[in-house]
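User: Quick sanity check before I run a bigger batch. Here is a single chain. Can you write out its predicted 3D structure?
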Amino acid sequence: MKPAGRAARPALPREVRIIGGQWKRSKLPVADRPGLRPTPDRVRETLFNWLGADLSGWRCLDAFAGSGALGFEAASRGADEVVLLERDRRLVASLNQSRERLKAQALRIEAADALSWMPGCAPQRFELVFIDPPFDAQLFDKALAAAVRLVVPGGFVYLEADRAFGEAQLGPLGLRVHRHLHAGTVHAHLLQAASEG
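Assistant: Done. Predicted structure follows.
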């Protein structure tokens, strides 16, 4: 009989697949690291259906890159520039290996803490910012506030969280819910920044 203990966390997939674009079906490794929880395939597929198959001309920031699934997916679909931020050195090394293997010229990987890096970035630098921090770190509000100044007017912030965010939290930041999906423990929000004028 096993001793009573904490419930085991669900096993992570060992890899994720890029869903569309030039690297469709290419695999990205998923390391067993604290807080790492790759965006589920179904959620990623829905998100990129919302955004469109062709992201040509877009500049994207994947602020909590982890496995890199969101950033690599954007680059695979033609984004002109994708910056991935990751503070875990082992994950940075893995991201760089995937970048080299796929010859992903549009990708730049920075070994950096997202909440330290974003305030130093020029405003209105990106069309799309991905915010997918570890759920237990409770960084959502700080990350959203940092991200909103980085998107162009009418641009998008993708937020993946363990709960739904609504007008009360988003309105003061100048964001509105464009699309929302609830799948299992994940709430996926595609948020749109206010347009100028």
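Residues 1-9 have pLDDT under 50 and may be disordered.

User: Great, the batch can go ahead then.
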